[in-house]
Amino acid sequence: MTYHLRKFGQSLIALFFVVTLSFFLIYKAPAGDPVKTMLGFQVTEEDVQRLRSELGLDQSLVIQYYIYCKRLLKGNLGRSIISDFDIRQEITRRFPLTLSLAIIAILIALFGGVILGLLNTFYRSIGPIIDFIIVGIGSIPVFYLGLIIVWFFGYWLDLFPISGYKGGMNLLPPSLVLALAPMANVARITVIKLDQILGQDFIRTAYAMGFPRRKVIGKFALKNALLSLVSSLSNSFALLLGGTFFVEYIFGWPGMGLLAVDAMLNYDYPVIQSIVLITAVSFITINLITDFVYGLVDPRVME
Amino acid sequence: MKKNRLKNPSIIFLILVGILSIAINLFSPYDSIQINYNASLQPPSLKHFFGTDSFGRDIFTRTFYGARISLFGSAFSLFSSMVIGLAFGGMAGLFRGKLLDYFFSLFSLTVWSFPFIVAVIALTAAFGRGVFATFFALAVVNAVLIGRFVRGEVIALRERDFIISARAIGAGDSHILFQHILPNILPSVLVTTILSFSIFITTEAGISFLGLGVQPPTPSWGFMIRDGIHYIGTAWWISFFPGLLLTLCVVSTSFLAEKLNP
Q1: Residue partners of A110: CB distance under 8 A and separation at least 6
Q2: Sign of CA dihedral B168, B171, B173, B177
Q3: Do A25 and B126 touch (CB under 8 A)?
Q4: Which residue from B113, B202, B240 is facing A141, i.e. has the nearest CB?
Q5: Partner residues linked to B58 by β-bridges
Q6: Under 8 Å between Cβ of A274 and A236
Q7: pLDDT tens column, B119-138
Q8: DSSP assignment, residue A153?
Q9: pLDDT in tens, A160-213
Q10: DSSP string, A31-43
């Protein structure tokens, strides 16, 4: 119980600092005064002043921070200063698109990674080739790989519509590209853990009792390796969340990542702020869940 | 030992790319920025090894110009982040439980709430994009990660007998830090830093790819790959070659890191 409370408390503290940081992201944004961005070039000093007081930008830092926190607690993320859409609505519309991409990608990454890791441990003769594949798919930058996939399947083979969200099959290429970096991560950890576990006594006992190698590796050792895989999931999720920016941009996938990239290019600070906030909250939540699950499957960490 | 290390193909490749990028003016008759519409969108040939882009600029020349920013910028900011991380992490570990340590821990907790690349992208946007903002953001985030690692190592070392003995005979904080702790943690910090090199060049290229990093017309791998998206059906070479060189550099660094990692 104290373990859960401690982890939960840590997440809350992190959340508080993330909110503060995201506030300063706008307050101290050195590039592009939001007011000037909103009004364009042909403005008088009076217009600027009026808008500043409308937005509450002429208040002191503490009061602005207080207003910001109060607004966030109400779930109000503000409006875009470029296109004037309601940010919360826009994000609720786009979030499921990114989420579906991420879920499929993490499933591909887990299955693919564990299979690669097992292959490497099981067939020693092709081990170096698998090693090379693991390092290779972990190294190709996701935006380059995405481009190659678009070129190969979209133009060369003409298999699927290249960009945009049309449901069904065209969910697969972007999530595959997104999955590769975490897959390499999962595979590497599986290999390392299997290697460690295979040196332990209970494996020797299992062999001595006459279990076939397939069963010893595929069942006894794998089960233990999967446990420690849970604790490293956070890394894979980090790779995944970072990858969505690039994958959505390349495939024209209208999710959160594309929204973020557009906002950054236009200095749309409220949108950037909101997405930074949402990403951090998702990541903190994922880490908290991972910690809890890990506590469930391996109670030793709770001490 | 040293001879073996130099024979490593990864190191040879990286050094080769580095030398070529410095000396590209000697090898190539073309300018990296000058626009020449007569030579626009030419496929790879003996005249233009990697072809030309829509402005008629030689991709071979631009790719190696881009390597300058990518490799040397990353190396510089990586090194600075290591020094800063060592300093702050070391002090936080040494003065454990003091105000400085709390500040550092809270700051690192915040940075750890973001996926690495998201933190860097957000900071780059906050610093006002461009190549300096990118490398500055990279250095800041990585310094925190290194600092956290260093802090943990220092805390583990503090309890060891030889440090306690040094303290018992009256050694000061700075003596302990520089004479006893630093030599012990430096090797593992160096390995971690080299491991991060590939992450640095990928992230820098990624941010330039999104249009937030190196601004055109200065050549950079990321922006050249982005440039090629519009011509992907007709002129594949625009993004293929910069991306290939980037990938090869990342792969060689990864293999190098794999070797160093015990």
Answers
A1: A186
A2: negative
A3: yes
A4: B202
A5: B52
A6: no
A7: 898 888 878 778 899 999 99
A8: I
A9: 666 655 555 578 888 889 999 999 989 988 988 888 888 888 888 888 888 888
A10: SS-HHHHHH-SS-
